[in-house]
Amino acid sequence: MRHLHRVDANQAAIVEALQRAGCTTLSLTSIGQGCPDLLVARAGQMWLLELKADSELAQSQIAWINAWNAKVHVVRSVDEALAAVGLAKSPKP
After folding, report:
1. How distant, in Å, are the alpha carbons of 29, 67, 85 from that of 6?
2. Which of 37, 62, 74, 89 has its CA 20 to 30 Å from the CA of residue 17?
3. What pTM was computed for the model?
């Protein structure tokens, strides 16, 4: 069975900002099964970003993050995405 994978409303702005800042990005949205939305690389480092616009993590996303053997950053804005990859200070909650 084929599932449609929803792209969060903030994804285009976050990808654009990361690319303008010198990052390369790869959308992982089509993988589904809780896999994070973006793989981001800059200066020899890589990060996994789960983008959330206005919802909480789904159970499949929580399970994937808990099973993965590395950090997955959950970000809701351009500022949070830039901070996750070390290009800005973390925004205040």
Report:
1. 8, 22, 23
2. 62
3. 0.88
Residues in the chain: 93
66-76: per-residue pLDDT in tens? 999 999 999 99
pLDDT score of 3 more than 60:
no
Note whether 81 and 11 are within 8 A (CB). no
Mean pLDDT of 48-55: 93
CATH topology of domain 11-84: Trna Endonuclease; Chain: A, domain 1 (3.40.1350)
Q: Around 85, how many Cα atoms within 13 Å sit in the side-chain half-sphere?
A: 29
3-state SS, residue 22? coil
DSSP state for residue 18 in the 8-state scheme: H
Tokens (6 digits) for 37: 């939305």
Q: What is the pLDDT of residue 51?
A: 96
- Spatial neighbors of 74 by CB under 8 A, at least 6 apart, are 49, 50, 52, 57, 65
